[in-house]
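User:
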Amino acid sequence: MKAMLIAGNWKMNKNTQESLQLVESIGNGIKKGKTAPKVIVCPPFTSLESVSKLMGSYDIFLGAQNCFYKSEGAYTGEISIGMLKHLKCSHVIIGHSERRTHFFETNDMINLKVKACLAQGITPIFCIGETLGERNAKKTYSVLRRQLTVGLNEIPQGKISRIVIAYEPVWAIGTGVAATREQVEDAHIYIRSLLEDGYGKKAEQLPILYGGSVTPENAESILSINDVNGALIGGASIKAESFLQIIATAQNIISGNK
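Assistant: Predicted structure:
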């Protein structure tokens, strides 16, 4: 029975009241049980404090959408890991393609964030993925190799198990175009092989999520792939009904009902 993690990245959506309502709807809709997947919600920064107060009421973990690698200082507009931990965040998304594209985050900067997360005891959801141009140029493997190699630079064997990897092909994010089952499987097998080359057996159980227009309609096809351990979900995570459907699909796969 493989473990499964379902994470919702709300991006720049939902005010505080809307966030609370969404968490309550998700929390009340999750069917509890031994085969339930781990569920994480990542609201905007403005909602984290309010949402954190609900975490004890539901079997849901709280994540943030970004962080800075410095612990404090004159970094206007940035949020430290310590601040996130104070709000009971257990996870933080690092290196999302939108951060790379719109805010020019580099592999080296992402590596600093991954290191800072591990040093301060919060789990990074480390995102990697190629653009459409890179895929069409047959550079998918080289891009993934570079992002993993630099992003995990100097991460020791003993800490690799504390990381979650998310493969998110940039061309399938927010476009409504999901990668085919074959494309997802191929990429996840390759990512797993790179991790095992660098970290041996410790990488065998490392969660690798898929992120890229995951919907209730395609969730079963994607989540049933051997090397897919869950999903990082965007648009479908800001509607309780669709998010709960994906969670239920994961639960059925874990329990062997699909």
